[in-house]
Specification:
The complex is a heterodimer of chains A (about 130) and B (about 1000). Chain A is α+β, with helices and mostly antiparallel strands and about 130 residues long. Chain A has a single domain, classed as Alpha-Beta Plaits (2-Layer Sandwich). Helix content of chain A is about 15%, strand content about 30%. Chain B has 25 helices and 51 strands. In chain B, strands 8, 9, 12, 13, 14, 15 and 28 form a 7-stranded mixed sheet that branches. Chain B has a 7-stranded mixed sheet with strand order 41-42-43-44-40-34-45. Classes of the chains: A alpha+beta (about 130), B alpha+beta (about 1000). Chains A and B meet through β2, β6 and α3 of A and β8, β39 and α23 of B.
């Protein structure tokens, strides 16, 4: 009998509110990486990962289910679908010779998605205890 | 039924609908647009409060945020009772319930008004005299009595049901204050397209324009121009308008904090009550206006004595007539405008008494032309009346400053004006330097320390046209500022006592109304030897009330300067402190309340330990299992079983809370060389090394294991509670000290769950589970790390031990932690292993002499003190703390060193923290040689043992010492701190 280890996400037991104004759900598992490096040198990621890390603060780039989110002047969060393979290898190859740090943090975070016409109001995010 | 003092028409209140409210149980009516204060005035009510110390009857001084007297309690229902709210800032709504404070049994018949009679006994600082004795009298008599009599308002006791949130914004231009200057700045900035945020603490934008009835701006009546301006700003997509929002703090680098009140003005509040705005602006425009100054004369605090411009605003903006027969006492032209406005609203102006020798400006001229009686060179020296002013005493001023025999003039309102003080609070908070302007005798914004401009009245510019023009150019837009007509200039002002008063009357000439500080108190302070304005302020408490001296600072300063015989500029102002106006606690709490106040952190494996019935303790915010008791076991029995089992077969433990950081880059090893005492350049890939971190003072502050995963990649561990701090120290040094090093850090504390397995059977337990790693000792020596899999899950497997037994740590991705633990437990249980907790771990590591940072160390312990001197690679060019290590203090003889301690009685466990001395019965005053840092009963050794830090401990092996305790000292002997398997043979099982 081969050992199978079950994956338990950190938000498995989360109780979420129901509302006509918005939909909130635990997001499916994803691959996540923290990429650190110099903004101007990371363009090769567009080919290797699917999106290039955006240089403008507080912005994200998205394409085909992949995203790159700006976290700081030298830090980005890369998100890809859980089943994707070879992401780390592809990025390392594309950035060969360019100083950077790529660290898998797929399990460090969980995600909740918030959708609906009123989803953008920050008071929703700030006012409820989750 | 219309309130009896409501003007026939005019004002911005909505006269179509009556709102009902109650004050001290009495029912009244007002309108939307009223404040509680203006609605009370419209109903002829002036008595609103009793003063803090003397319980003198008080009414409104001002209609603005600077109001010092009319503090009320607003009762919004259970959990919504708010004390100490200024009645001038309570927006009226239907059903409002408010109460006066600080009076018993009622506002009219307040028993503590006797304080007023005894007031000669209670000048400023009277309580300092009570400290002089007799001994015990302060605690037993004075303090309880003072405490009962003092204070304003009653603190609420029910939990606050409301919600508060935070909002964060960046913008190019932040404008504070939406009066004419601020609006001009906001319009001008908005038209350039940049992001603009405009703040105003009132429910409507406009500031002084809200009561402006004669000026014409850009060809339109002022209030029409105001509406057009607000409409334009509302429509602009790049403008955020925040009304009811008080900017209360100006911090460094143009960081502003503001409190937005969202529901206090609603009869049935729901949703967020307040929002804390935290804004970072590229430029700030301060348009905070000016506060009118009261005149200082005897009995200037009676209900019905108020600021002239506030009286005018009551009539013109709120449609509330503050009196029918008014005496105007002034040193400023503005009071003449007020007199004309009040007359137009239906009042009789009995007299305008101007303390200046002459008044020739446009407004005095207009007043005379309208037939008002004006007397110059005449000052108000007193008032009469009990719960309301009935007479004003006006005397001709002599050249020496005294006044002649006063005329007694009947009136029901005294409108007074000492001029206007620019509101420089926020400028001062931003660390700007104030400069004293001799011409206007006021402190104006001088050299700014941040990217900001002050415009309008807060910059000493009182002409409406000039204020709008100044605001317009500060906004940065092009084009012409709107032109202004019909706003003639006003000048004048007085500081301090308006006429010299006989000594007996000085105690009734109030300067700080809220703290009941009189002119006499300020002079007393200087007589008692206070010279600095900071001491005078604290001795008298002037300027220290919730109004922060808005209407009192300049008068207090003038009186102090005169008493000290120094110019005002030399005496100077005290520091303006945050917040500008009081802020609720809820606002700062924001969403951090209830469960979110102190969030609980649980590891991915927590539920397994919970099901096993583990006892948990807190390590920072984390829950960690202390032990896993079997039914009927005592604590000691559990620990004994866990330790004996682990050392005999194996034990597993959840070590997931440890901090973990991934260090990546070509200069990773070099960076680690600089933050640890050890050297990592030669650490081979796949090997681990225990690292010790010093702070810049050379003291140990964290430790952990450094694992090399690749030439340019390390996985380091830190203590549980030190994780965030170590990460930020590393990031700080990378960014500010060694930016040339190519290295980055990523926190992975929560990325991995960590399972420790220790004991001679550890390898046997892991073997069936681990794929891709040769676990044999020759292939996988102690202090190594390998990458492999368990059940298909990639793991980082380290061979490390904190117990001294053969040990491994499995780092599995967090979501697989629970499953991995269950798999390992299944194999472990078969072989008679146990799970153990922190209690057992602490004993086992101490048996091996391993330190715990924060237990053996206290921030003053060096590596050498711990016996780890050899670990410090002094040959390295630099590392944090290296310089300090060469200080004589850090290597002198007599320093406390880590040793073991065995009590003579093997069954006796010495207290942790016990002081250690060298005599059996130490007399009082004996210095300790050191203290016990860890102390346990050891099942492994079959006796008690301890670790201690003792002066010169290493050279005292075998010495007999005494450990103190509650029941006297116990003899003990200094021994080697490693009690078990000193050679380390068990690590290689």
């Amino acid at each position: 009998m081969t050992l199978e280890i079950v994956r338990h996400g950190p938000l498995e037991d989360l109780l979420l509110p129901l509302s006509p104004a918005f939909t909130v759900q635990v997001a499916p598992f994803a691959q996540r990486y923290i990429l650190r490096g110099e903004a101007g040198q990371l363009a090769p990621l567009a080919g290797a990962f699917g999106v290039a890390p955006p240089a403008a603060p507080l912005t994200s780039a998205q394409a085909n289910g992949r995203s790159a989110l700006w976290l700081g002047p030298d830090e980005w969060l890369l998100i890809a679908e859980a089943e994707a393979e070879g992401i780390e290898g592809a990025i390392e190859a594309a950035l060969d010779g360019v100083f950077h740090s790529l660290v898998d943090i797929s399990h460090r975070q969980g995600a909740v998605s918030l959708e609906g016409p009123r989803a953008r109001r920050p008071s929703i995010l700030a006012s409820r205890s989750i | 039924m219309t309130a009896s003092f409501r003007t026939a028409s005019g004002g911005r209140v909505d006269r179509r609908q009556a709102l009902r409210f109650s004050f001290d149980g009495e029912r009244f009516e007002g309108h939307a647009g009223d404040t509680l204060a203006s609605a009370l005035i419209a109903n002829g009510v002036h008595l609103m409060a009793r003063s803090f110390k003397y319980h003198r009857p008080r009414g409104l001084l001002s209609v603005g945020a600077d109001e010092p007297n009319a503090l009320v309690t607003v009762d919004g229902g259970p959990g919504r009772v708010t004390p100490n709210v200024r009645a001038t800032q309570v927006e009226l709504y239907d059903g409002l319930v408010a109460r006066s404070q600080n009076a018993w049994p009622s506002l009219k018949y307040d028993a503590l008004a006797v304080n007023s009679l005894a007031s000669p006994l209670f000048p400023s600082g009277f309580y300092y005299k009570t400290f002089l004795g007799p001994q015990g009298a302060w605690e037993k008599l004075y303090e309880p009595v003072i405490r009962r009599a003092a204070g304003l308002g009653v603190a609420p006791t029910a939990a606050d049901p409301d919600l508060y949130a935070f909002a964060y914004r960046h913008c190019e231009v932040a404008v504070v204050g939406a009066g004419p200057a601020g609006l001009a700045a906001a319009l001008s900035a908005a038209r350039t397209g940049v992001r603009v945020i405009l703040f105003d603490e009132q429910p409507e934008f406009g500031g002084s324009l809200l009561s402006e009835t004669s000026a014409v701006i850009a060809g339109a009546p002022a209030q029409d121009w105001l509406k057009a301006a607000v409409d334009e700003l509302t429509a602009a997509k790049n403008v955020t308008l925040l009304k009811r929002t008080q900017v209360f703090g100006y911090y460094l680098q143009n960081f502003l904090a503001a409190a937005e009140r969202l529901t206090d003005h609603r009869a049935h509040p729901h949703g967020l009550r307040e929002k804390l705005w935290q804004v970072r602006a590229k430029r700030v425009v301060l348009a905070t206006g000016a506060h009118e100054r009261p005149l200082v004369f005897a009995d200037n605090d009676r209900p019905g004595v108020m600021l002239a411009d506030s009286a005018r605003e009551l009539a013109t903006r709120y449609g509330a007539l503050p009196g029918r027969r008014i005496v105007v006492a002034t040193a400023h032209d503005g009071a003449y405008r007020a007199a004309l406005a009040l007359q137009a609203a239906g009042a009789e102006i009995a007299l305008i008494a101007d303390s200046r020798p002459e008044a020739t400006g446009p407004w005095p001229t207009a007043a005379r032309a309208a037939g008002l009686a004006v007397e110059t060179g005449a000052a108000i020296v007193g008032t009469r009346g009990a719960l309301r002013v009935t007479h004003a005493l006006i005397g001709k001023l002599w050249s020496d400053g005294r006044a002649g025999q006063p005329d007694v003039i009947a009136c029901d309102l005294v409108a007074m004006s000492g001029g206007f003080t620019p509101s420089v609070h926020l400028f001062s908070q931003s660390r700007g330097k104030l400069k004293f302007d001799a011409a206007s005798r006021s402190f104006l914004p001088g050299e700014a320390r941040q990217a900001q401009t002050s415009v309008g009245a807060c910059n000493g510019i009182f002409s409406l046209e000039a204020a709008i023009s100044e605001g317009w150019s500060a906004g940065g837009g092009s084009g012409e500022a709107p032109a202004v007509q019909g706003a003639p200039e006003m000048t004048g002002g007085a500081l301090g006592l308006v006429a010299a008063l006989p000594a007996a009357q000085l105690s009734k000439a109030f300067v700080d109304f809220q703290n009941d500080v009189s002119a006499r108190d300020i002079r007393l302070a200087t007589r008692e030897g206070m010279r600095s304005i900071e001491h005078i302020k604290r001795y008298t408490t002037t300027g220290m009330a919730t109004d922060q001296g808005k209407s009192s600072n300049m008068n207090a300063l003038a009186i102090a300067a005169e008493a000290l015989k120094k110019p005002i500029a030399e005496v100077g102002l005290t520091t303006f402190r945050l917040p500008y106006t009081p802020v609720t606690f809820g606002l700062f709490g924001g969403p951090s309340r209830g469960k979110l106040f102190d969030p609980v952190r649980r590891t991915p494996i927590h539920s397994w330990y919970e099901r096993q019935g583990a006892v948990f303790e807190e390590a920072g915010l984390w829950k960690r299992a202390s032990r896993l008791p079997r039914p009927g076991e005592s604590r000691d029995e559990t620990i004994k079983r866990e330790i004996l089992t682990t050392r005999a077969s194996a034990g597993i433990m959840d070590a997931s809370t440890l901090g973990k950081i991934e260090v990546v880059g070509p200069d990773a090893a070099e960076f680690l060389n600089r933050v640890y005492v050890n050297s990592f350049s030669k650490l081979a890939v796949g090997r681990c090394r225990y690292g010790l971190m010093l702070n810049e003072q050379g003291f140990v502050y964290d430790d952990g294991v450094v694992m090399r995963l690749g030439p340019e990649r390390f996985h380091i561990t830190t203590t549980t509670s030190g994780a965030a701090h170590v990460w930020s120290v590393m990031e700080d040094y990378r960014q500010t000290e060694w930016p040339e090093l190519k290295v980055h850090f990523t926190s992975i504390s929560e990325q991995y769950a960590t399972i420790a397995i220790n004991g001679p059977l550890s390898r046997e337990i892991l073997s069936p589970l681990v794929e891709g790693i040769d676990l044999a000792s020759s292939a996988f020596p102690h202090m190594s790390v390998r990458l492999g899999k368990i059940g298909g899950v990639p793991v980082r497997l380290a061979r490390v031990s904190f117990t001294g037994e053969l040990g491994f740590e499995i780092n599995a991705p967090a979501d697989y932690g629970l499953g991995a633990h269950e798999a390992i437990w299944a194999e472990a249980e078969k072989r008679g292993a146990c799970a153990y907790g922190l209690d057992s771990l602490l004993v086992m590591r101490a048996e091996k002499g391993f330190i715990v940072v924060g237990q053996e160390t206290d921030g003053t312990v060096t590596a050498d003190d711990l016996g780890m001197g050899k670990m410090v690679a002094m040959a390295k060019p630099d590392f944090i703390g290296k310089r300090s290590l060469s200080l004589p203090e850090l290597s002198r003889p007599g320093r406390k060193q880590l040793v073991g301690l065995l009590s003579d009685d093997p069954a006796f466990v010495i207290d942790e923290g016990a002081q250690v001395v060298d005599v059996a019965e130490p007399p009082p005053g004996t210095s300790a040689l050191g203290h016990v840092t860890s102390s346990y009963m050891s099942p492994t050794l079959g006796r008690s043992f301890a670790l201690a830090m003792i002066a010169d401990g290493r050279s005292k092996m075998g010495a007999k010492l005494y450990a103190t305790g509650v029941e006297g000292t116990r003899a003990a002997q200094i021994v080697d701190p490693v009690f078990y398997d000193k050679g380390g043979a068990r690590l290689d099982a």
